Amino acid sequence: MKHLRQLEDQSVYILREAYKHFNNLAMLWSMGKDSTVLLWLARKAFFGHVPFPLLHVDTSYKIPAMIEYRDRLAREWRLNLVVGQNKEALAAGMNHTMGRVVCCTALKTNGLKQLLEHKGYTGVILGVRADEEGTRAKERYFSPRDKHGDWDFRDQPPELWDQYKTTFPPGTHIRIHPLLDWTEINIWEYIKLENIPFIDLYLDKGEGIRYRSLGCAPCTTPIKSTAKTVDEIIEELRHTTVAERSGRAQDEGRGMELLRKDGYM
Amino acid sequence: MTLIETKPSENLNIVIVGHVDHGKSTLLGRLYADTGSLPDGKLEKVQAICKQQGKEFEYAFLFDAFLEEQEQGITIDTARTFFMWKGRQYIIIDAPGHKEFLKNMISGAARAEAALLLIDALEGVKEQSKKHGYLLSLLGVRQFAVVVNKMDLVGYRQDVFDGIEKEYREFLGQFKAVPLQFIPVSAKLGDNIANRSEQMPWYTGATVLETLGGFQKEAARSEQPLRMPVQDVYKFDARRIITGRIAAGQLKVGDHLVFSPSNKRANIRTVEAFNIEPQPTEGQAGQSIGVTLDDQIFVERGEIASHQEHLPSVSTAFRANLFWLGKRPLEKERKYLLRVATKEVDCEVASIHRIIDTMDLAQQQGSNTVNKNQVAELTLRTKTPVAFDLSASFEATGRFVLVDEYDIAGGGIITELVHDDQEFLREEARRRDFAWVKGEVTVEDRAQQYGHRAAVVLITGGRHTGKSFLARKLEGRLVADGRHAYLLDGENLRRGLDADLSEEERGETTEMARRYGEVARLLTDTGLIVVSTTNPFGLAYQEASQAIRTLVHPAPVIAVHMSKTEEEPPPNTDVVLSGPTDFDAATARILDELKRRGVLAQAIGAKPVFQYSI
User: Fold this and answer.
1) Which of A17, B403, B512, B536 fits a disulfide with B337 by CB distance 3.0 to 4.6 angstroms?
2) Does residue A183 belong to the interface with chain B, where contact is any CB pair within 8 Å?
3) B3 lies in a domain?
4) Looking at chain A, which residue has its C-alpha nearest residue B103?
C-alpha cells in the first residue's frame, strides 16, 4: 500500500502544478481504467472537486456500456463533461476499414486537435503510462506540443526534480501525464484500495473473456480470462507475460509511433 | 528461465548512464531477458523487425522502441521500463550518453534514487564517464555502482578491470563520491548480469542484479526539521486549504507553522484529505497534503512552512553550483526566472566565479558566460527575498532551476547563503512579526469591510519631478472612489517621531528609512493603502525604498518612478513615468497596477470575495 500512496503523492503534486500554471486546463477521460484513476486522483488533489472540464473524444464506435458509465459518473460526481467528435470525418463515412492508423488519426487525433483548438485549452491532462508501450515510455510529465499538436520527441525539455515545463509560446500546448510511473498492476491495486467504480467490461462474466484495454469496439478484442474480481485481475496480471495492449489493433507495426508523433494521446 | 515475481512491496527508481555505445540498452535487454521479465512476443517482434531489416538481433533493440533509434543505434530519450525482482519493483530509467543529449541524462538522473554507471572496458575512462560521475554527484544521486562492460573484448582480464577501477575511483574521490561496487560484466554474453560469470572467477563481488537488490530506499527525510513549500491555496468550498508537498520533516494538527519569507504564522487546525477515513491528523515527508489554519493569514505559493525553531534562510542572494543546458549560453547580468521549490522569482547572475571542466575538474575563471553542458560556480541575485536552504542540509529546498524564456535551461544546488544589505532589517522585521500582538479584528475582516487590501504606493525619483503632486492626486482619487488611503508625508515624521534625532542623524538614510518603514508597516496593518514619496531621502531614494520594502514585507509595494527625461528606473519599479507627466493618466496607471496586484477589487462598490488577505 505504501508504494501506491507514493505514486498518489507524486500524481497529486503534478495535478496541482498543472492547475496552478494553466488557466485553460482540461483532462481527457476515455472512461478506461487509467483515465478513471486519473479522475479519482484529481478529486484527491482538489479535495473532492474537479476544477476543470473532462474531455471525451467520441469516435462514435465506443462500446455502448462506456457511454452509459460516462454519463452516470458525470452526474454523480458533478463533472463538467465536454464531448468532442470529428463530425466531418464521420459524415464522410470514416471507419476502421479505411485503415486503422487513418481512422485513429481522423477520429481520435484530429478529433482531439479540433476540440483543443475550438476551446483553446493550453494544458491537457492525460492518463498515459510509461509501461503501456514504447513511445509512452519516452514521455515527460509535462510534454510540449507544437502549433500542429505534434510531438518532437528528439528535443524534449529537461525535467529536473519537481520542476516541470509550464511556460510555452502562444499557439502551443502542454500535455500533462501524472500517471507515467504507474504500472497496470498499480492501477488495479489502487482501484481496489480506493474502491473506485470501473466498467465491468474489464471483468469476465462467465464467458471466459474480458477486456484488458478498452478502445473502439471494432478495434479492441477481449482476452481469454476468468478474472471476475479486481483481486483476480491483479493475480492474473502478476503472472501474465502478454502485453497489455495486445488487443489494440493500432499498436501493430509502427502504428503507435506514427500516431503519437502526430499528436495522438 | 521464467521467474515471475509477485507483490512488489516498494518501488526503486534506477538510472543507467554511460557513454554512447558502452552498452546500456544491451545491459537492460539482458537484465530483462535473464530475469524472465519480458512480455510474450516482445522478443519475437524485435527479432522479426531485425530480420526484415537484415540486421543481427541485439538485446539493445528490445529497448529502442522507436525505429529511428534503431537506425542510428542510439537511445534518443529517457525511456522508463519496469521489472520486479525479489519483492521490489524497479523503474529503470535508460538515460542516453550521447553528448547532444546530456539534458535527457540529467532529466533521468534527477528522478533516480540510485544509478548504474557504465564504462567500456576496451575504451577505459572517457570524458563522458567523468562528466556523468560528476553530474550524478551534483544531482544528489549518492548511491551508485560502476559497471565495467565488454569484458569479453579484453579477454576478461583482471588487470584491465583493476586499472579502470583505480583511475575512476581517484577521479570520483575528488568530489567525495564513493561507488558501492565496481562490477566487471559482458552484457552481450550475460556475464555477471543476472548470472555469475564463469569467465571471471577472480571477481567474487555482487552481480548487477545483486547490486540492484543492495540499493537502499532513500533515507527517511521525516526525521529532518519541517519544510513544506506552499504549492497552492484552495477555496473550493468552505475550507481554505493550504496545499503542498512535505519536502522534509513532519507536521500534525496543532503545530505552529511559520511561513518564510513573509513571517506569517498560524496553527494547523485540520489536515484535509479526500476519501480517507478517519480524517488524518498528521503528515510526513513525501506526502502531498492540505491543511487549514486557525487564522486566515495570507500565504501564497512559494513560501516555505516550517516550525519556528528551524527556519529556512532568507536572502536575495546565494552562491550555487549550476549546470547549463540552455540553447543559448548563460550570461552574467542577464535576467532569468528562478524556481526554488515552488517559488518563482526573477533573478540575475551577479557573478560567475568559475567554470568547472568536468573532464579534469580544472577551473577556469573570468568568464562572463556559461555554455551548454558546462558546470559553473556562480552567485544569483533575486528580485525579492526567497526562502531556501543549503543543499547539504535540505535536498528539495536547496536546489533550483533557471528558466530562460520558455525553457528550463539549467539547474543547480545552493552551496552558500550570500548576505545582502537588508539582512539586519529583515531580522528586525522577523523578530517584530513573531512577537506581533493582534486584536480581535482580523486582517480578513478589514479587507472585507474596506473592499481592498493594504498596500504601499511608493513614488521615487529625482527632485522636482512631480512626486508630491502625483501622491496627493492619487490619495484624493482613491478616497473619492471609496478606498481607504492615506498620504504619508516624510515631513510629518521629521518634526515628530524623528524629533529626538540630531541634525546629523537626520541626514543618515538608514535610520530615517527604518523609522519610516516601521510607520508604514503599522499603517498597512490598519488596512490602509499608504501613498508616499521618497522625498525626505533626497537622492538616496534607492537605498530608502529597499529598506521600506523590507520592513513592510509582505504587504505589496507598488513602486512608481518619475523622471523628466528617460532614465534607468531603480530595480523592481512597477510603473515608469518619464517626460512631461499627464497626472490623470499616471493615476489611472497606478490604479490598474493596484488591480493587477490584487489590492483593489475590479469594481468599485462591489464587496470583493477575497481568497486571502494580508
Assistant:
1) B403
2) yes
3) no
4) A158
Query: Torsion over CA of B325, B142, B14 and A239, rounded to 10 degrees?
Result: -160
What span, in angstroms and rounded, lies between the C-alpha atoms of B428 and B129? 49
Cα(A214)–Cα(A184) distance, integer angstroms: 13
Backbone dihedral angles phi then psi of residue B475, each to the nearest 5 degrees = -60, -45
Q: What pLDDT, on a 0 to 100 scale, did the predictor assign at position B232?
A: 94
pLDDT tens across A11-59, in order? Answer: 999 999 999 999 899 999 989 999 999 999 999 999 999 999 999 988 8
- Do B65 and A138 make contact, defined as CB atoms within 8 angstroms? yes
Residues of chain B positioned with their CB less than 8 A from the CB of A134: 65-66, 79
CA distance B67 to B73: 10
Q: Does A224 touch chain B (CB under 8 A)?
A: no
Distance between CA B302 and CA B312 in Å, rounded?
13
Q: Which is nearest to B316 in space by CA: B259, B393, B261?
A: B261
Query: Which residue of A47, A231, A242, A246 is the best one to mutate when testing the B interface, meaning the one whose CB has the most B CBs within 10 A?
Result: A47
Cell 565496481 sits on residue = B182
Per-residue pLDDT at B8? 56
B176: left (phi over 0), alpha (psi -120 to 50) or beta: left
Residue type present at position A200: D
Task: Give the per-residue pLDDT at B440.
Answer: 85
Helices (H), B53-196: 67-72, 102-110, 127-139, 158-173
User: A28: part of which helix (H) or strand (E)?
Assistant: strand A25-28
Letter for the amino acid at A7?
Answer: L
pTM of the model: 0.78
Per-residue pLDDT tens digits for A82-130 = 988 888 887 877 877 777 778 888 878 888 888 888 888 889 999 998 8
CA angle A155, A159, A163 (to 5 degrees): 140
Quote the number of domains for chain A. 2
Q: Return the pLDDT at B110.
A: 80
- CB within 8 Å of B228: residues ≥ 6 apart: B244, B245, B246, B247, B249, B251, B289, B304, B305, B306
Q: Provide the pLDDT for residue B98.
A: 53
Q: ipTM score here?
A: 0.90
* Together in a domain, B233 and B368: no
B2 in a structural domain: no
Domain carrying residue A238: 184-249
B1 domain-assigned = no
H/E segment holding residue B238: none
Do the Cβ atoms of B248 and B225 come closer than 8 Å? yes
Enumerate residue ranges in chain B where pLDDT < 70. 1-9, 20, 38-42, 62-80, 94-101, 219-220, 358-361, 601-614
Range of the domain at B281: 221-306
What residue in A sits closest to B409 (Cα-Cα)? A158
Task: Fill in the amino acid letter for B313.
Answer: S
- B471 and B536 fall within a common domain: yes
B5 to chain A, closest Cα gap in Å: 7
3-state SS assignment for residue B230: strand
| Residue-level pLDDT at B360 | 64
pLDDT at site B25: 78
